[in-house]
Amino acid sequence: MTMRQMNITRRGALAAAGAASLAAPAARAQAPYPAGQSVALVVPYAAGGASDVIGRIVTDGLQSRLGGSFIMDHKPGASTSIGARHVARARPDGLTLLLGTISTFTLTPLALRNPGYDPITDFTHITQVCDSLYLLVANPRWNSLEELLAAARARPEAISYATWGVGTTAHMAMLDLNNRAGIEMLHVPYAGSPPAMTDTIAGRTDCMFALLSACKGHLEAGRLRPLAVPTASRATQLPDVPTFIEKGFPGFISTTWYSVEAPARTPAPIIERIRGALTEHFADPAVRAFMATQGMAPPEIGEAPLIERIRRELAVNRELMAKAGMEPT
């Protein structure tokens, strides 16, 4: 081989190596989301509550269908606004998601003067996850709804109720019940459902609204007593528990829901992969059967129905808070 041929060969090898080094980052950039990376699902409640059950359903489904690592990151406090604000300000790369709630998007923005986020524009609303059954539970010393309400009428503000924050679904449901029953109970807000439930079990608070998925074990063990459900008919999971309608409160129907969000401006291909994986996951009969045992019903998938629901319930809750005389704090 001549010197000229050797130089040509060397130049060709260097050019090929350079092209390969340029192609490698491009290939990595085009790898399907999440490309083996770790993704945080921010849960705006303390660990150990119903949100963990729902969060595990979401993270397990995404990880099994997309790969990578999906983990729950608990950021409780301020009626879910701390976690929501964190996600709203995160980089829109799909690596930070939010387990949204009815409180996050339709109650907290009304209850707090400055929640730190806009419920519509600061997020890409991926899909609803589930509607979840909740019910009024009490320390076992209370035998019935009638007994609890009679005590509350006799001793205003002596009977207490726990919630997982000001302006949450649990708070609004109790305000509604207080108004309908003509009573005034003492509100004791907590940073999440687990500490609220712990104090209700211990008797430091008397009652609370709780998600079935969070209190089911305590009901079965007798640590909490179910008093009534705010549904149109008795829940199949709790056939012996009366509805509020049966107990003389017509129209007292209330549900709670969860969703998954990303920061605004997250690229559409990432959003579609997440939404597609969740659609497949919630269509799985085994997943649906498990959710049913926890009092969860998968709602309509998609961004449009979720945004429509948020706008509708914001209007309803704004009116309810005005009637209750609640001012933003």
TrEMBL record:
Transmembrane regions listed in the UniProt entry: none
Keyword Acetylation (UniProt): no
Domain of life of the organism encoding this protein: Bacteria
PROSITE patterns for the chain: TAT
Keywords: Signal
Signal peptide region: 1-29
UniProt key word Cell wall biogenesis/degradation: no
Gene3D superfamilies, alphabetized: Bordetella uptake gene, domain 1 (3.40.190.150), Periplasmic binding protein-like II (3.40.190.10)
Pfam families, A to Z: TctC
InterPro entries registered for this protein in UniProt: BUG, Bug_dom1, TAT_signal
Protein family (similarity comment): Belongs to the UPF0065 (bug) family.
Name of the protein this chain belongs to: Tripartite tricarboxylate transporter substrate binding protein
Organism annotation: Neoroseomonas eburnea
High-level lineage: Bacteria, Pseudomonadati, Pseudomonadota, Alphaproteobacteria, Acetobacterales
